[in-house]
Design a protein that fits this description.
With 423 residues, the chain is mainly alpha-helical. It is built from 16 helices and eight strands.
């Protein structure tokens, strides 16, 4: 019996279906071709399933509408969906979409962002890399075959996939997708351990950069370029440029301004506060009587209580006595709340004065705090609470095989062995 809209080629094992979508008065027609169909009876089963699918499409046209591409969805919904999150998080999502996700998946329909495609993308990022040279606005400068690419870190790769899954979640929330197309396991990249913390010697040199004026003047002499001798309009020659004189009054003023930031950086080192929490620290969060700082972290919105070291307490007591009235603990040289830009400039200057040329970020002061406590034998749960981590596994990444801890382990084993021999 001949079936309308159905054909099957037994020799090629190809089934072809034609059908008008019910309820469209013949305006919508669907065609489907399937290969490797073993028999006519199997093809008829697939044909019936095809007809049922079209009937469902007629009943639920919105569900079966063509899915937008990732680029189209982001263009239409990104601003609305990110209105609920912090500006810094929105900026983070924007950067990953622009640099990684839209170039790769921008033209892919949302319902085709499968685990297979994501895992292939992870593999490409692991094998590939990026050119560390950047042009204006951190844009690629136009790479050549001679450019040496730097591999992406596991954190960068996983952050990119996290942002993609967040966007897919938004699509499900807005009923653009029935459910997540990511059905199978995503093979996350190996996470990088935080290994940029300060050594004891680097810590000493970094803090000393805010105190040793002679060291600062030596730094100015080291970076100063010779002045140029150029003709003067009125006749003769004139020396211009060359930077600050190491022995001048201006150098003393610049060093005084650098000193102003010492309490801030020492507080980050001894409390593990994130930069954003340090910048926004208010006196209402500081209790000198109880010797603690109580804050609700901006990133995780989690309350933490941090003890004050003697050095930090002394610095805060001095700041409390200044004549300027402000709710903020840390102010700049002009008695205004600190900004990320000013702190970043002073941090770079202090690194240079200290002779620290390797990669070191402000956030690594927090890593230094965590790794110091863990390596000194402080309980992981305690360190996790101090850092405001929601998962103790995050804190465990700071654990190191420190010689001090290994020595304590050996002593414990010796005591157990001695007790065993006496028994």
């Amino acid at each position: 019996m001949k079936l309308p809209g159905f054909s099957y080629n037994a020799g090629r094992r190809v089934a072809t279906f034609y059908c008008f979508v019910p309820g469209t008065d013949g305006r919508k027609r669907r065609k489907r071709t399937l290969t490797n169909v073993p028999s006519r009876s199997e093809a008829i089963k697939l044909w019936n399933a095809f007809r049922e699918e079209l009937e469902n499409e007629a009943l639920n046209p919105a569900v079966f509408a063509k899915r937008p591409t990732l680029k189209a969805f982001v263009t239409d919904h990104f601003d609305d969906m990110t209105a609920r999150i912090r500006p810094a998080t929105k900026e983070h999502y924007t950067a990953f979409l622009r640099r990684h996700l839209l170039p790769k998946f921008g033209d892919v329909p949302m319902d085709q962002l499968t685990s297979q495609k994501i895992n292939a993308f992870i593999g490409e990022m692991i094998k590939g890399g990026y050119c560390p040279k950047r042009g204006k606005g951190r844009k690629p400068h136009g790479c050549t075959p001679e450019c040496v690419k730097k591999p992406y870190s596991g954190t960068t790769i996983n952050d990119a996939i996290h942002v993609l899954r967040v966007v897919i979640g938004w699509a499900v929330e807005l009923d653009v997708l029935d459910g997540s197309p990511v059905k199978k396991k995503v093979k996350w990249a190996a996470q990088n351990l935080p290994e940029l913390e300060l050594s004891l010697d680097e810590r000493r040199r970094f803090l000393n950069a805010f105190e040793d004026e002679a060291l600062f003047r030596a730094y100015l002499a080291r970076i100063r370029t010779p002045p140029k001798i150029v003709p003067h309009p009125s006749g003769g020659m004139k020396r211009v440029g060359g930077g600050r004189l190491p022995g001048g009054k201006a150098a003393k003023e610049i060093f005084r301004r650098l000193q102003h930031y010492r309490p801030f950086f020492w507080t980050l080192l001894d409390t593990g506060l994130r930069l954003s929490d340090g910048l926004n620290l208010r006196w209402s969060s500081v209790s000198l009587e109880e010797n603690v700082i109580r804050v609700v972290t901006q990133k995780k919105n989690k309350p933490v209580t941090l003890p004050l070291s003697d050095v930090v307490r002394t610095a805060l007591e001095a700041l409390k006595k200044r004549p300027v009235i402000s709710e903020f603990v840390f102010l700049d040289e002009d008695d205004k709340p600190l900004t990320k830009e000013k702190v970043a400039r002073k941090f770079s200057m202090a690194k240079a004065v200290a002779g620290i040329s390797r990669r070191l970020r402000i956030h690594d002061l927090r890593h230094t705090f965590a790794s110091t406590l863990v390596s000194s034998g402080v309980n992981l749960k305690v360190v996790s609470d101090l850092l405001g981590h929601t998962d103790i596994a995050t804190t465990a990444r700071y654990a190191r095989g420190d010689e001090r801890v290994l020595g304590e382990v050996a002593k414990v084993l010796d005591r157990v062995n001695d007790a065993t021999r006496r028994a």
